[in-house]
């Protein structure tokens, strides 16, 4: 408390010794300093605002990256499942085609289309005997 009072007394003493022109100059300097301090406060507020905006943009970008990663993963899983389904369907069709060719080569298909079931049965039993041996 004493140092504050001493500072005030010293400042008052200096002001008594100064002329009116010098006091005006000091007043101008103090005003200029006040303007500079005010401008710096505005700049600090702008910097703080920019930091907040950057933080919000970074958080939004992170969320978008997470969503896009999840979307890519889902697309990849869907593609794999679709590929498996296509392979299964193609294998099934290939197997059907192989049976059809086998039946045609043994005459079973012709017998069935002509309505001769007994002939088809004989051809099929011969084919089964050949396949088992």
UniProtKB/TrEMBL annotation:
Organism: Brassica carinata (Ethiopian mustard)
Keywords: Membrane, Protein transport, Signal, Transmembrane, Transmembrane helix, Transport
Gene Ontology CC terms: endomembrane system; SNARE complex
Signal sequence coordinates: 1-21
Chain ranges passing through the membrane: 68-90
Domain T-SNARE coiled-coil homology: start-end pairs: 23-68
Species classification: Eukaryota, Viridiplantae, Streptophyta, Embryophyta, Tracheophyta
Molecular function via GO: SNAP receptor activity; SNARE binding
Protein name per Swiss-Prot or TrEMBL: t-SNARE coiled-coil homology domain-containing protein
Any one GO biological process: vesicle fusion
Gene3D superfamilies: 1.20.5.110
């Amino acid at each position: 408390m004493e140092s504050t009072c001493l500072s005030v007394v010293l400042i008052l003493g200096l002001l008594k010794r100064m002329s009116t022109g010098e006091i005006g100059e000091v007043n101008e300097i103090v005003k200029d300093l006040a303007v500079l301090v005010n401008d710096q406060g505005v700049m600090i507020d702008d910097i703080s605002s920019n930091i907040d905006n950057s933080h919000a943009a970074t958080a939004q970008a992170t969320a978008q990256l997470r969503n896009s990663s999840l979307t890519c993963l889902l697309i990849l899983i869907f593609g794999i499942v679709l590929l498996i389904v296509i392979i299964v369907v193609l294998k099934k069709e290939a197997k059907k085609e192989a049976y059809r060719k086998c039946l045609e080569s043994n005459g079973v298909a012709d017998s069935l289309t002509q309505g001769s079931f007994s002939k088809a049965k004989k051809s099929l039993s011969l084919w089964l005997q050949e396949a088992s041996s």
